[in-house]
Amino acid sequence: MKQGNTLSDRINNSLGKAQNRQNFRSAMSGLMEKRAAQFPDDEKLAKLRDRGREIRANSLRNLPYLLIELEKTLTENGIQVHWANNSFEANQIIVCLLQQNDAKSVVKGKSMVSEEIELNSFLEGHGISVLESDLGEFIIQLADETPSHIIMPAIHKTKKEIAELLHEHFPELPYTEDVDQLTQSARKILRNKFNQADAGISGVNFAVAETGTLCLVENEGNGGMSSTVPPLHIAITGIEKVVEKLADVPPLLNLLTKSATGQTITTYFNMISRPRQPGEKDGPEAVHLVLLDNGRSKIYGNSSLQEILHCIRCGSCINHCPVYVQLGGHAYGTVYPGPIGCALEPMRLGINKVGGLTSLCTLCGACEQVCPVQIPLPKLINRLRAESVLRRADYTSLIGAGSMRKPLESWGWRIWKWIYRNPAIYRVFSLIVTRTRELIPARMGRWARYRFNPKPARRTMHELAREAGFDNE
Amino acid sequence: MSRAREQILSALQQYSENGGYRGIVKTPKEEGLSKEDRVARITQMMEAVHGEVHRLLDREWMKWINTELPKRGYKHILVGSGDIGKIVNVEAMDSLQIHSYTAEIEEWKDQLFNQVDVSITSTRGGIASTGSLVIWPTSAEPRLMYFVPPVHVALLNAEDIFESFEQMVIEQKWSKEMPTNSLLVSGPSKTADIQQVLAYGVHGPKQLVVLILG
Ligand code: SF4
Ligand code: SF4
After folding, report:
1. Does residue B33 lie within any of the structural domains?
2. Which CATH superfamily is domain A39-294 in?
3. Which pLDDT score is estimated for A176?
4. Within-domain flag for B3
5. What integer pLDDT is reported at residue A123 of this predicted model?
6. Per-residue confidence at A1, pLDDT binned at 50, 70, 90?
7. Per DSSP, which regions of A219-282 are E strands?
8. Which residues pair with A38 in a beta bridge?
9. Ligand 1 mean position, distance from CA A297 (Å)
10. ipTM (interface pTM)
11. Mutate to test the pocket of ligand 2, among A150, A317, A321, A344 (most ligand atoms within 8 A of CB)
């Protein structure tokens, strides 16, 4: 966790960066408009989202069976499957595969799961060089930062910052702030690396159980090259990314690209079903898939939270969140920011570690409205808020459940409950509060730092209502 | 069998219902576009993402290659070993230098990465609703032909344009047998990673030319 130690440090830090905030605001507005333009017909959109949800729900209902089938079809196709309980195991598997193949340099396509397991630093610790080939990931790798958005990792940077960064690392290239020229510089640098890399690592957008196919969605062509040029391709994905049928893919793809970036489709949609076959002239000799759990099976066991695993990582909820747009991704301090992060990360990492994320939400509902697979994010976040202060038998085994309970706060609420439940006491209480309004301290401490000081009205609403002729009913 | 596998599966199996397939397999109704409508739609969609599209008669494409490529200053042309490759090898103008993808990539990687200007390939078909080329690379036309050269010229038969990806997958029964690799390509390689400004050719081709035949 970079960018400050505590959540409130990071928030203060993010709120202080005016340029960054402007970058987020304009980028998110653009993305919202583009998405809206892709879905002009509400009825059609509703149908498509129903389908998306049904496909993902089906995948989850049958998850263990589909994973077994996926393993079978992939193995038949010649793709080796590996299972990892956690980041450590996944990293171990990958480093072993690379070492067995004597691979010293890796070129990577975009993969949030690889961010999740902090693969790059692990491999570098083992003397393997890793190059991010997605332009956004490449930029933040140069800057030694983490992604601030799951789809557009370098969205917080201006072109001037990027120009300076490239110039600093590659002084032989002429300094330019022209986006086309910057992109061409990156092409030149990265081309050579592709040519020389010993292995390619990528994520997976959908894994099809029926046919043993790994699908990659991208615009740049780096995913296609990472999975074709080097002699070894290792794909890594969370266990929830499996779908049952090949026919499930087109509707999900349609929802994914339109929701994510407002594109009808991305430039490349790559379906990989086998390593290089005899007679074929390119493609990797070996393809491996690492299936990562990392807390997902625990979430799966919790029927009230399971829906979070429907997520297809489109980032649309992030683009529409009024909190994210103010803060940007780094304030969250987790791999996944925004609404999906507020819900998923406390489930994955534990409420005791990142439960504070659940407070980065106004429960406005925008995220649920745009989620292509209809995940009720606000409901889940609210549920997590409850779990963070309560430990109840009918709640779950979430790590750190109840850990955010504060004795004073909970006593406060208990007293309030008692007052509110007894009409006579409530009447006395409200009379006292209204009649002593002048005694409220001028500064209410931390609570009033960003809020107006509360001041009770002169008379209670009940009094006013009775005067106006309403009776107690 | 690995320990992780057993642990993950048993954790999941405890809670799964295995209800059989309940996803909606029924395809939504297509619009029923005519061939000409499909050509018009794919052209419009391709052009919207910076693709260049020309409608030609069947055998005119070679003439197009011979006039347009030299005019645009391209010299090193990559073809596969299929029908298109054969025709290009015989009929190309002398000023074009033809490279055929006949050796395994390891033997000529540098040349492919550094010398080739344009690749010319066939396609399996097209998708009107998204403006996509459907490509199943083969040993005659291998995968890197579509990713590495700065310009990609693709020939597409008008007959092979489907209305949607879904329709094509289902009608052609893709699930029976998937090829090593299949690809949808919709426009030239692009990125908006620098301050949301669209730029082309970050990794794959900077230019995609689609010649629709028939
Ligand atoms: S409900 Fe919460 S998380 Fe969702 S968009 Fe609104 S503020 Fe963001
Ligand atoms: S929660 Fe929904 S909107 Fe957010 S990334 Fe996942 S699929 Fe997209």
Report:
1. yes
2. NagB/RpiA/CoA transferase-like (3.40.50.10420)
3. 92
4. no
5. 97
6. very low
7. 232-238, 242-243, 268-272
8. none
9. 25
10. 0.95
11. A317
pLDDT digits 0-9 by tens, B132-153 = 999 999 999 999 999 999 999 9
Among the bound ligands, name the one nearest to the CA of residue A325.
Answer: 1
- Supply the pLDDT for residue A194: 87
List, in sequence order, every beta strand (DSSP E) within A203-353: 206-208, 213-218, 232-238, 242-243, 268-272, 286-292
Burial B198-212 (b: 16+ CB within 10 A, else e): ebbbbbbbbbbbbbb
For B122, residues 6+ apart whose C-beta sits below 8 A from its C-beta are B80, B82, B83, B84, B141, B154, B155
Mean pLDDT for the stretch of residues A76-88: 98
Give every strand in the sheet of A129-132, ordered side by side. A79-84, A286-292, A232-238, A199-202, A105-108, A129-132
Pocket test for ligand 1, best of A362, A368, A381 (most atoms within 8 A of CB): A362
Q: Look at residues A275, A184, A264 and name the one whose alpha carbon lies nearest to residue B128.
A: A264
pTM as predicted: 0.93
Name the band, by pLDDT with cuts 50, 70 and 90, for residue A391.
Answer: confident
Q: How many domains does chain B have?
A: 1
Please list every residue in chain B whose beta carbon sits closer than 8 Å to the beta carbon of residue A30.
196
Task: Specify the pLDDT at position B28.
Answer: 62
The widest CA-to-CA distance across chain B, in whole angstroms, is 69
In three-state secondary structure terms, A82 is strand
Cα A36 to Cα B32: distance, rounded to the nearest angstrom: 26
Q: Work out the end-to-end distance of chain B between its first and last CA atoms, rounded to an integer number of angstroms.
A: 54
- Please spell the DSSP secondary structure of A11-51, one letter per residue: HHHHHT-HHHHHHHHHHHHHHHHHHHHH---HHHHHHHHHH
Tens of pLDDT along B82-104?
A: 999 999 999 999 999 999 999 99
B39-65 residue pLDDT tens: 999 999 999 999 999 999 988 999 999
Residue A233 above 80 pLDDT?
yes
pLDDT score recorded for residue B1: 47
Q: Is B2 part of a structural domain of the chain?
A: no
* Cα–Cα dist A406/B116, whole Å: 67
In a 10 Å sphere around its CB, with 0-12 CB exposed, 13-18 middle and 19+ buried, how is residue A424 labelled?
exposed
Exposed (0-12), middle (13-18) or buried (19+): which is A43, by Cβ within 10 Å? exposed
pLDDT digits (tens, 9 = 90+) for A247-274: 999 999 999 999 999 999 999 999 999 9
> To probe the interface with A, which of B132, B200, B202, B210 has the most A CB atoms within 10 Å?
B202
User: For the domain A1-18+302-405, what is the CATH code?
Assistant: 1.10.1060
Task: Of B141, B122, B127, B144, give the one whose Cα is nearest residue B203.
Answer: B144
Please name every residue paired with B208 in a beta bridge, in sequence order, or none if there are none. Answer: B152
Number of H helices, E strands in chain B: 6, 12
Chain A contacts in chain B segment 93-132 (CB below 8 A): 101-106, 109-110, 113, 129-132
The verdict on residue B9 lying in a domain is no
Mind giving me the DSSP string for A347-412? HHH-HHHHGGGGGS-----HHHHH-TT---HHHHHHHHHHHHH---TTS---TTTTTT--HHHHHH
What was the pLDDT predicted at B37? 96
